[in-house]
Sequence to fold (381 residues):
Amino acid sequence: MKKVVVLGSTGSIGQSTLEVIRQFPDKFEVVGIAAKSNVSLLLRQIKEFKPKYVAVYEKKAYEELKKSVNSTEILFGAEGICEVAKLKEADIVISAVVGAAGLLPTFEAIKAGKLVGLANKESLVMAGQIILSESIKRGSKIIPIDSEHSAVFQCLNGWNINFIKNIWLTASGGPFRGKKLKELKNVTPTEALKHPKWKMGKRITVDSATLMNKGFEVIEAHFLFNLPAEKIGVLIHPQSIVHSLVEFIDGTYLAQMSIPDMKAPIALALAWPERLPNVVPSIDWSTLKKLEFELPDTKTFPCLELAYEALKVGGSMPTVLNATDEVAVEAFLSGKLKFIEISKIIRKVMDSHIPQEPSSVEEILSIDRWARKKAWEEINR
Fold:
């Protein structure tokens, strides 16, 4: 029986992880969970899974939990979440905290030598080289949970990197696929949050609408699979059945396919190197009539090109990209910024940044703070 820690247990990935564990109670035991502030959901999760340790980021939520729970150790703040991330008894840590807040606990889990199921792509976008160096040093293995990277991980399956010509990450295209820039001038947050295929958190859903999420995945793929930007392509695939493709030097491809359900890559990470039965329904070939693919429209959706640029510049630029996007999406959702202005704010902050080569997580977080401050200055201006 594997002992599991779930960071971000109240988010969409965290809840899906607990669904898989619920389906296989003889294979997994939850020893720790961590979340930001959703006390009512945390209480239900504590009652059902009986973790030994629970960490919550916000103080008010911590105080509520302390009053309500006696049999579980309740930890507080970023330090508490990091403590849960490196629990000695944990066999695998699912890193699903949203945004830059997931970097430190992910890093702590890797420093502790844990097997990490990585759903927090920001960890690699912000600090990819530092994370990978530490994982090699500590003997920590990273198994990607993003459906696209899980697909590449499965298709590569030990193939020599010299045999790989390209990898292709697929994207549904989001709610605005096929639209032109002039049609996006007045889109609302409600429209941007209507993803056609996936049920996700607000930020990642908006990032999917701008194609920035795919840009982050390009950066993540660079670090996970040791491939240059030129060998990482993106294909719009509205059916979301093919999650990624690996193109080999002989002109052949391997693709990984399933219905769009995050429980599939989560279950693979949890059970690795095994597979669990009946995690998601099979594809219904009687109703699936076509699979479509097209290249992305980067003129209408410039965020994808900004991500490629940040990756090629390297150093601290991906950190700036992520921080500015997080702020810009927040401003869009709160009505302070238009949808098409998200990429413009990111462009301005990237242009004002002098790239550095950070050597520690502390330096990364300092750059992250600078970029956020600069982004708000641009938004307010």
The chain is about 45% helix and 15% strand.
